[in-house]
Design brief:
The complex is a heterodimer of chains A (about 950) and B (about 130).
Chain A (H helix, E strand, L loop, with lengths): L1 H22 L4 H20 L5 E8 L5 E7 L1 H24 L5 H20 L3 H20 L6 H29 L4 H6 L6 H18 L8 H4 L5 H9 L3 H15 L3 H22 L5 H22 L2 H32 L4 H4 L3 E3 L1 H15 L5 H14 L5 H29 L22 E3 L3 H19 L5 H12 L15 H18 L1 H8 L8 H21 L6 H22 L13 H19 L3 H21 L3 H22 L13 H22 L7 H14 L4 H9 L1 H24 L9 E3 L7 H4 L1 H24 L7 H18 L12 H19 L10 E4 L2 E4 H25 L1 H5 L16 E3 H12 L1
Parallel strand pairs in A: 3-4
Antiparallel strand pairs in A: 1-2, 5-8, 6-7
Chain B lengths: L1 H17 L4 H23 L20 H26 L16 H9 L4 H11 L1
Helix pairs in contact in B: 1-2, 2-3
The chains are: A mainly alpha (about 950), B mainly alpha (about 130).
């Protein structure tokens, strides 16, 4: 049942994008339905159970049996219904609110938010709880950030604060898992963990930090008003049902084991009451109706946190009742402000004074909602506020403390009444500024227009919530059942509540009347209060602190980044080179005894290879011209190829040989864009030599000391002994590449693809260097590229087809004999390279295939083979198919995918770098210098063109 | 011993080339250090068994370790693609491949500001081309 509810919410997420595409903003009129169904399912699931529904679906069985463990009890029912019902309502409302742009992002983020919140409140596994918690953080970030560039900073600040809380929750979760060995919340709550004072202290600190950041409690309150840049439906959801309520849910979830703990009590009471007072006073200073509501949310949540801190059954019951009351009136008010903003074009109470507010329905919603917020009978807010006073009066505290706290709460309630009145007056356009303030900005008299009522579909949902505030206020016993169930869960024992509007004359009622009476006087004197409050802002601001922190983080990052931000790669490469020597030194000092080295590691032929490598390396570093360096580098490459042959690695040696050839071809293609010789010798030579020697010695010591001292590794043992048996392939290297470690290979294909894309991107954004025009004598045979390539062209006519056929044979037989996709593709590439070299001009590529498409085909084909493997249980599992008597192994198709990707990269390199079209299509080289070639010496390109014409 | 010496030569040559100014030399250094890395992988598998790893023809006890071979095979191709990428870096941008003396400070703030403004990438590229 619970999974069904989650699934319906997921359906809304899946439908969000296509529906937004087809229906635009009216997608909301459909998207609310799955959420409403999910809410109905939750209700059904709960009513058919004995107070608790538990469902388990395995997720990560290897890690403490983490599962998609869901639990529905009274508490999660209340929060789940708030999430789904208000979510559905907000979606319905948004259809009328939204503009014409960025529809998809809104619906997608909103439904994801609802899904994350639902999983959060249903989670019975701390890991699931944590993941859902972070998902709500991200969803809220996207919802705020989508409002545009002005929302960027607030969104980032919100993210910073809430992510910090998320990490804190992760710490709490880790402590819980480590101390109890389970991730199931019910088991954690029932464990004896809670009798260890130190652990409990840590858990309380981290949990309270997490909840305070999420619910915007002091000292982390600043993000909530900051996030006001989001549009009204988002604010309504964020404030009334989602996000901030997540913190309250977390506190209530752990309340059964933590209530009564002194630290818990002190932290929550202080944080809650400070926030409540600060929010209420700040709300009296704001002109933006939405901002006023934001501070009010802070304040109301402060009540809830303080109540949870007190932790008596009455307090927890009051907290749950007030959560419901707050969700109803706050969503109604936010959405009503949205209607006003939409119709009047402003939500600043000073600007609204010049408009004639002809919006009876919306203003009724405003009045009902504000009455509930102020705690005026017979609204639900009155019932909840009375229970709140009662909880503070009967707190488990010394009488004096209790009395002082009650005083503070009454003061907050007076402020609440005052700002509620201010809100109603402001919304009605009846805001009065302090008398002697002549500079108060006012709406232009030209804007003195009548603001008309919106359509019923727009104000309908806010009206429903406002009416519910009234109905539940008059008939509070309708909520008795659900509040009893929720408070039983939060208290940990069975608790029965009888809600009533009239409890007789008792201290709580007296306090309520005091709050209402004094509040009413305060509303009358609002201009005076404002004249006193507005010029006296708080000297410190939480927002400033967060902003400073954010800026400081960026500054530190700039400093750290500047250490390596140079364009000179030598500076970056110096770090690992020096560390290598340091590592060798550390190894020499710490490793004392090594196992005996195996016999027979070296053969006399090896020394020849060492000699060739030595000659090649020395020649490479001593080369003065670029073409020379490349030529002698080839020596090293061929020596390494021979090494691979000597070590029994045929496939690797073939690959190395072909790559060596291709590397040199690509280098030669680009060489005419670089100066011929290297620069003059510099002073750094000695330092470079020293570094090179140190690194060389370190590499020698490391390789000598740490290899050849053990037998074959276990996996290698397995591959050599059973590889063929398991796969049917005789070429073990190929078998490892395309079967055992195919996922690895697929990843590498992706790297190839990314490299190809990166080369293309680089060429699109950076100008290639101009070509050094070769200046050759007219009479020299070298001056004519067409005649020059006769031999190569003639040879290519025969060699290329042979090579291609041979490469295909290599590809197909790779499973059993030397070959495979890599070698095959490299050989085909080499064949094509011959075509490119034999081409008489650079103007057109001989092979005009879509190299990017080829790379993409390779990766897609490889992934498709992988998905096909799922048929037999796991990604990329090779499957033997019997087609018309032929034994076809899907690993061959995977090898073909490898072939495509590698060939695509090679062709891409040739086409992009070799042909004129690829390299200079976008950026035509500057015209040749005015001083033309001296007489007798002809520019290559002109001659080439003439020659081509002649051929035609 | 011989393999370790080869690795030492390659690493020393690579590090020496890294300290040079020209991008092409740095790329050559990368090619050399790539060879060194591949040979170290082989060394890790042991060099006493050197028969090709093909099943029915070879005795499993004399067979070379196939695992490093598989690693190296893909590593070679990846190194090739990285080499191509670095070569493109070398021949684009400035007039030659000199890397010294062009130290630019990262301007994180400017970058984060520019993130806020949406350019279509294609347009930016074209503007860039027009400028140059």
């Amino acid at each position: 049942m619970l999974l069904l509810a989650v699934s319906f919410t997921l359906i809304a997420v899946i439908l969000a994008a296509p529906l937004s595409h087809w229906l635009g903003r009216y997608a909301g009129w459909i998207l609310w339905i799955p959420l409403a169904i999910a809410a109905w399912i939750l209700g059904q699931a709960y009513s058919r159970s004995d107070g608790q529904v538990i469902e388990y679906y395995p997720w990560i069985p290897d890690f403490f049996h983490v599962g998609f463990h869901l639990r529905l009890d009274g508490l999660s029912l209340v929060f789940g219904l708030l999430v789904l019902v208000i979510g559905a309502g907000v979606l319905f409302y948004s259809a009328k609110y939204l503009g014409t742009t960025k529809i998809t992002s809104f619906y997608l983020s909103m439904t994801t938010f609802a899904l994350a919140m639902l999983i959060l409140v249903l989670a019975n596994d701390v890991m699931v709880l944590y993941v859902a918690w972070e998902a709500t953080t991200l969803a809220s970030f996207f919802l705020i950030a989508r409002s545009g560039s002005h929302a960027r900073k607030p969104a980032v600040r919100t993210l910073l604060v809430t992510v910090m809380g998320g990490l804190s929750l992760l710490a709490a979760v880790a402590v819980m898992i480590a101390s109890t060995g389970t991730t199931v919340i019910t088991e954690i709550l029932a464990s004896d963990l809670w009798s260890q004072p130190t652990t409990v202290t840590w858990i309380i600190l981290t949990l309270v930090l997490a909840a305070c950041t999420k619910s915007a409690q002091f000292p982390f309150q600043s993000w909530l008003p900051d996030s006001m840049v989001a549009i009204s439906p988002v604010s309504a959801y964020l404030h009334a049902a989602a996000m901030v309520k997540a913190g309250i849910y977390l506190l209530l979830l752990f309340s059964p084991v933590l209530a009564g703990n002194t630290l818990w009590l002190v932290l929550l009471l202080c944080s809650g009451l400070i926030t409540a007072l600060m929010g209420a006073v700040s709300a009296l200073r704001r002109y933006d109706l939405k901002e006023l509501l934001a501070y009010s949310t802070m304040s109301q949540l402060g009540y809830l946190v303080a109540l949870i801190g007190i932790g008596t059954p009455a307090a927890l019951t009051a907290a749950i009742l007030h959560t419901i009351a707050h969700a109803l009136f706050k969503s109604a008010l936010f959405l009503a402000v949205g209607v006003i903003d939409h119709q009047a074009g402003t939500r600043d109470m000073r600007m609204l004074t010049v408009r004639k507010m002809a919006m009876p329905a919306t203003l009724t919603v405003v009045i009902l909602g504000a009455a509930s917020m102020a705690g005026i009978p017979p609204m639900l807010g009155f019932v909840s506020k009375e229970s709140l006073f009662d909880a503070f009066l009967h707190a488990n505290l010394p009488a004096v403390v209790s009395a002082v706290l009650t005083g503070v709460v009454v003061l907050i309630a007076i402020c609440t009444f005052a700002y509620s009145g201010r809100f109603v007056l402001g919304a009605m356009g009846q805001y009065r500024s302090p008398k002697n303030w002549i500079n108060t900005p006012r709406g232009n008299a030209a804007n003195r227009q009548t603001v008309h009522e919106a359509s019923a579909a727009f104000w309908g949902y806010p009206a429903v919530n406002a009416s519910l505030s009234l109905i539940f206020g008059v008939l509070p016993f309708m909520l008795s059942g659900i509040v009893s169930a929720a408070s039983s869960a939060a208290i940990g024992t069975e608790h029965h509540v009888e809600l009533a509007l009239w409890h007789g004359i008792n201290p709580a009622l007296v306090l309520s009347l005091i709050a209402i009476g004094v509040g009413a006087v305060a509303v009358w004197y609002l201009p005076h209060i404002e004249a006193y409050l507005v010029p006296r802002p708080l000297t410190f601001s939480g927002l400033g602190a967060v902003e400073k922190l954010r800026q400081a983080t960026i500054d530190v990052g700039t400093v750290v980044g500047s250490w390596t931000s140079g364009l000179n790669p030598g500076r970056h490469l110096a770090v690992p080179s020096i560390l290598l020597a340091g590592l060798a030194l550390a190894g020499w000092l710490t490793i004392d005894e090594l196992p005996e080295q195996q016999a027979n590691l070296t053969r006399w032929t090896d020394w020849l290879l060492v000699a060739v490598v030595a000659v090649g390396v020395i020649a490479t570093i001593r080369a003065r011209t670029r073409v020379g360096a490349i030529a002698v580098l080839g020596t090293v490459g061929f020596a390494v190829t021979l090494w691979f042959f000597a070590l029994g690695a045929v496939d690797v040696a073939l690959t190395q040989l072909l790559v060596e050839i291709l590397t040199i071809i690509v280098m030669v293609l680009l060489l005419h864009r670089l100066p011929r010789t290297f620069g003059q010798r510099e002073q750094k030579t000695r330092l470079g030599l020293f570094a090179a020697l140190a690194a060389g010695v370190a590499a020698f010591a490391g390789t000598y000391a740490l290899t050849g001292r053990r037998g074959m590794s276990d996996p290698a043992q397995y591959f050599t002994e059973q590889g063929t048996e398991v796969t049917g392939g005789n070429n073990l290297v190929n078998v490892i590449l395309v079967e055992f470690r195919a996922l690895d290979t697929l990843g590498e294909l992706t790297v190839l693809g990314v490299a190809g894309v990166a080369v293309a991107a680089l060429l699109a954004s950076r100008r290639p260097n101009p070509v050094r025009t070769a200046q050759v004598l007219n009479t020299s045979p070298l001056s004519d590229p067409f005649d020059n390539s006769v031999y190569l062209r003639t040879f290519a006519k025969i060699a290329v087809p042979v090579l291609i056929v041979f490469s295909l044979i290599l590809l197909v037989r790779g499973h059993n004999e030397p070959g495979g996709g890599f070698v095959g593709a490299l050989l085909t590439g080499a064949a094509f390279a011959m075509l490119y070299l034999a081409a008489p001009t650079n103007d057109a590529a001989p092979i005009r295939w879509l190299y990017m498409g080829l790379i993409g085909t390779g990766i897609a084909l490889g992934s498709a083979v992988g998905i096909f493997g799922l048929v037999d249980g796991s990604f990329l599992k090779p499957i033997h198919l019997d087609i018309f008597g032929f034994d076809l192994n899907t690993s061959l198709i995977f090898d073909i995918a490898v072939y495509f990707a590698v060939l695509g990269l090679i062709l891409g390199a040739f086409n992009m770098l070799g042909s004129k079209r690829g390299l200079e299509a976008a950026t035509e080289a500057p015209p040749e210098t005015a001083a033309g070639p001296p007489p007798g010496i002809q520019n290559n390109s002109t001659k080439r063109t003439q020659q081509r014409e002649a051929v035609k | 011993m011989t393999l370790a010496l080869t690795v030492a030569l390659l690493v020393a040559g690579a590090v020496y080339l890294f300290t040079r100014r020209e991008m092409l030399r740095i790329i050559l250094g990368f090619v050399l250090i790539g060879h060194a890395g591949n040979l170290i992988l082989f060394a890790a598998g042991g060099t006493d068994r050197r028969t090709e790893a093909f099943h029915p023809s070879a005795d499993p006890s004399a067979m070379a370790d196939p695992l490093p071979q598989a690693f190296v095979l893909t590593a070679i191709v990846i190194a090739f693609s990285i080499t191509v990428f670095m070569l493109v870096l070398a021949v684009t941008g400035d007039k030659d491949d000199d890397t010294a003396g062009t130290v630019e400070k990262l301007d994180v703030e400017a970058e984060s500001r520019s993130d806020g403004v949406r350019h279509t990438p294609r347009k930016t590229a074209r503007q860039h081309q027009e400028r140059s």
